[in-house]
Each structure stands twice: as C-alpha cells, then as structure tokens.
Amino acid sequence: QCLDESFVFWSTSSHEPVTLTSRDGLERRQLYQPREPVMSLSVYGNRISCVEGTSRAVVFSLTSGTPFVYEGAGLQDAVQIGYEALIVSKSATSRSPSPLILINTRTGETVPLPIPGELCFSLKHAGSSETSLIGFMVKAQPSASTELVTVTVDPSSVSSARADSKAVYPDEDLKAFLFVDRDTVLTNLGKGPLMEISLMGGRQASVERDYALPLRAVAMDRFYASVNGDGSLSWYLRKSREIVSNGALSETGFWMER
Fold first, then answer.
1. How far apart are CA 236 and CA 245, in angstroms?
2. Is residue 161 a contact partner of residue 151, using CB atoms and an 8 Å limit?
3. How far, in Å, are 54, 110, 131, 216 from residue 163 at the CA level?
4. Distance, CA of 97 to CA of 13 (rounded, Å)
5. pLDDT value for 1
6. What is the CA radius of gyration of the chain?
7. Where are the beta strands (DSSP E) in 153-241?
8. pLDDT in tens, 41-97
9. Which of 151, 194, 202, 223 is at 20 to 30 A from 69, Cα to Cα?
10. Average per-residue pLDDT in the chain?
11. Contact 78, 50 (CB under 8 A)
12. Could you give the CA distance from residue 236 to residue 239 in angstroms, rounded to a whole number?
C-alpha cells in the first residue's frame, strides 16, 4: 500500500508488525503489532484500518492513540468512509445476516447495511467519493453467483445504502481480485483473463492474454502490469490493452523475456 512518499507493509502469513517504510527503504517505523496475520488493509487520511485473521477489525493512527477494535466472525475487509465511520465486509451468519456493517468508531455502535448477500470481500474505495466503495458480493439466490458491485453509503442515512452490479459471474469465484484506478477497474472475475471495466460507462473490455492467467494486476499511467499464475510478469499498453512484454526470473536468477 502506497502512502504519500512511503509504503505500508504487512504480512498475510504471520503476525509481523505493520510497518511504514520510506521509498528508498532506509527509514522504517513500526505502526502496529497485530495478534494475527493481517489479511487486508486500507488507508484513509492519517489512519489505517485492517482485518486480523477473520475475527478482528482494527483502526489505528499513523501518529499515536489507542486503536479501535471490533471483534466478529468471518470478517474480510475494513474500510473507513469517514473519521468515525467504518464499513466492514464479512460473511453472513444467522446471528448477523448482512455481509456489510457500518461501525461508529467513536461509540462502537454497529448497524447492518440493507444489502443482501452471503459474503462480501475485496472491499475498496471506488472513485473520488469517500462513501463510494467497490467489492465482490457472493450470492446464493436465485442461484450461485459472484458480482462486482459498487456500494454507496451515507452514514447519516444507512437505510438508503445500495449496491449496483457492474459485472456478474454465474458461480462462486472466491479468488477474484480487483484493482481500482479512478474510473477504471481491473479484475479477473470469472477465472479468466484480465478485464478492464469502466465504472462510469459500464464498458467492459478484455486485456490481451499471454500464456498464463493473471493472479494480481495494477494500473499505471501508461501501462497495466500483472503477476500471472506461472510466476511470470506481463506489461500491457493501457490505451490499447495490447501486451508489450512478458518475462520471468529463471531458476538461476536471470531475467528472461519472451
């Protein structure tokens, strides 16, 4: 996660500290010591929210202060939409049937959002509005599906919260990823090639595929880049979505392009 002129690092496999590091790597500062691996993390102003394991959502400051902690079950992501408003995505349960909840980090009050689904994951900010989010929603009715949805929430009027579908895959896809850059979303929803989706116009376009399917992708000013299932890296021209280069590290440590 990039933050101004620094990077935030954390571990999804062990409870290593959340660390702020300068771009050159020479300056490091521990921000928070989690109890469990950090499975997702989000930055809002000078605050960071994260989910430890699947049972703790935490909000802490880059400077000082006591972290806010919410404990629950099946937690996925924690994203702030205001300095006192936290949206947590999770799996729906019989005791907590909503996959999205709004938490007031000052009072601890918790309110479910009136948005149906079995599971919401990969929740992120969408566009320039702090109250507009995007993520995947898994549904079981009327049949199994995974939807890419935008979620709009007004903390002062929770009942008006809504989710709008941008893309649908007619089955579960729990390994789907998404990357948001202003109006553009990159995703592999559907277990296939990289897709480019416009949030404003709804346009969808497939990005030219090389040998392997993408696992993760990022958008830059002129290029897209993806890490693929075979360990290779691919670069694409953003304007035309055509592949520019594909390479990988050999077993002997040499960089090879094909």
1. 7
2. yes
3. 23, 19, 12, 24
4. 28
5. 66
6. 19
7. 162-169, 178-181, 184-187, 195-198, 204-206, 214-219, 223-228, 233-237
8. 999 989 999 999 999 999 999 887 799 999 999 999 999 999 999 999 999 998 889
9. 151
10. 92
11. yes
12. 9
How far from each other are the two terminal CA atoms of the chain, in whole angstroms?
A: 29
Q: Both tokens of residue 14?
A: 């062990």
Residue 255: CB atoms within 10 Å:
9
Residue type (1 letter), 186: L
pLDDT of residue 149: 97
**CB neighbour list of residue 233: distance below 8 Å, 6 or more residues apart:** 225, 226, 227, 246, 247, 248
Tokens at 45, concatenated = 């102003």
Half-sphere CA count of 44, side-chain side, radius 13 A: 25
Cβ neighbors of 34 (< 8 A, separation 6 or more) are 10, 15, 17, 18, 50, 52, 56, 58
Phi, psi of 178 (to 5 degrees): -145, 150
Place of tokens 């009942």: 159
Burial state string for 78-116 with b = 16 or more CB within 10 A and e = fewer than 16: bbbbbeebbbbbbbbeeeeebbbbbbebeeeeeeebebe
- Residue 91 DSSP one-character state: B
Residue 122 CA to residue 102 CA, distance in Å, equals 16
What is the per-residue pLDDT for 2? Answer: 62
Q: Distance between alpha carbon 188 and the CA centroid of its chain, in Å?
A: 13
250: pLDDT strictly greater than 90 = no
Helix (H, G, I), strand (E, B) or coil at 61: strand
Q: What is the CA 187 to chain-centroid distance, rounded?
A: 11
